[in-house]
Amino acid sequence: PEAADLRSLAKLLYESYLKNFPLTKAKARAILSGKTSDNAPFVIHDMKSLLEGEQFINCRQIPRQDHHRRPSVSSVQSDLQREVELRFFHSCQSRSAEAVSEVTEFAKSIPGFLNLDLNDQVTLLKYAVIEVLIIMMSPLMNKDGTLISYGQIFMTREFLKSLRKPFGEMMEPKFEFSVKFNMLELDDSDMALFLAVIILSGDRPGLLNVKPIEDLQENVLHSLELHLKMNHPDSLHLFAKVLQKMTDLRQIVSDHVHFIHVLKESEINMCLHPLLQEIMKDLY
Amino acid sequence: TERHKILHRLLQDSSPADG
Fold this sequence. Notes:
The complex is a heterodimer of chains A (284) and B (19). Chain A has 284 residues and is mostly helical. Chain A contains twelve helices and four strands. Chain A has helices at residues 2-20, 25-32, 47-53, 73-108, 118-137, 157-162, 167-170, 172-182, 188-199, 210-231, 238-266, 274-280, and strands spanning 42-44, 141-142, 145-148, 153-156. Chain B has one helix at residues 5-12.
């Protein structure tokens, strides 16, 4: 009976994952490998293709600032380039904020989560969402680039690297992580359980009542362990390997928040989405 | 929760599926 409970928990979380996250790993890998009846994604590999591809992106326009254009053509081009980079960054923020809502809905579906102290629910989400978003981003990535805009666009890693500092440095750690994480070959049902484990981390700073969180996590951990054994019978120590990724994730999030702080200091036109601002304030 | 008003609201909103 206990194993049956753990299996039904895995099933419930997988169903919630499919309901809340629009682009699954199965779909993303089909797009990346060209095994889908949908159109191939539009490829963004330079500034020109970024401008062309912008029409695909749900881009929230930011107001242009009146700056005195210097006479040289190259500086006008460089102004335009800065504007396009910033606009792209803003569309990434909008998508991230939407994704935070999806993660929140997923968290609410974890049995027992809504019975936790409301302050603890907020703390768990605050600390987990960026980790979850990075995990969710991994299936969209390969060593050459990443799907964006719900899989309609493929942006090359080289192009992202070519953006000016610190934009150009922001995605590299995520690619490095993703390439290694994807080698574990988790599927969507494994991912659903792993995300729940991340959300239910009892060691987040400022939690008021750790015990019920740890109890919930322990149950999901048992379910994940059993599920991985059944779903990947030939993959040795997969459970331990998956859990080890949680340490890498924390470092990546801490570096990411640092990048955002640098951006806030250096970019006059930067405004951070209020939800992301709320999450990143006093986070590490 | 005071400093996390949006997260708080997202948590308290009932999802469309819940009616």
